Amino acid sequence: MSESNRLFKFSLPFHMNHHVLRSQTMYVSGVLYALGLWLMIDASIFSKTLNASVVHVTFIDWIPFICSTLGMIIINSLDKVQLISASSGSFDTGALSLQWQARIILFIGFSLIAVGFNGSFLILVLKFIIKGFTSNPTIRMGTENVGANICVMASCTILWIVSTLEEDNSLSL
């Protein structure tokens, strides 16, 4: 590679193939989701076995995680081409309608993820902090719920970015 075609002054010690980078980031996304699921399971197991307080993890605590998971499924199931596929100069109302349908579904998916994160934070505040359960083993159940939803949001973000990468390593959206 000639000196005039370089972006940096130094060369990178390794060359990442696009497919390797894409598969590695998908694995990272899966690990983040698994970590979030494990945080929820850990909070539930702790709540039912070792918890000495009167506060326990119930189905209400799982609702934000379920909303975040549904949002992640909706967002990453969309065909990204449908979001930008409508041609600007034609009068094809079918393609325009499909584009708006995809955008509405994408909005619903992002709304579910936002509801999941905000719901877990609300549960942390209302169930643990306001009622005075701020000692370490008990508050951990609420913080694990928030951490689980953060992991799902990060996993969804990574998966979205990786799925929008083109073959020439540029973002299409």
Automatic annotation (TrEMBL):
Bilayer topology term: Multi-pass membrane protein
Keywords on record: Membrane, Transmembrane, Transmembrane helix
Residue ranges crossing the lipid bilayer per the database entry: 20-41, 53-75, 104-126, 146-165
Biological classification of the source: Eukaryota, Fungi, Dikarya, Ascomycota, Saccharomycotina
Main location per the UniProt record: membrane
Protein name: Vacuolar protein sorting-associated protein 68
Classification via Pfam families: UPF0220
Subcellular localization(s) per the UniProt record: Membrane
Organism: Pichia californica
Listed InterPro entries: UPF0220
Family: Belongs to the UPF0220 family.
Cellular component, GO, one term: membrane
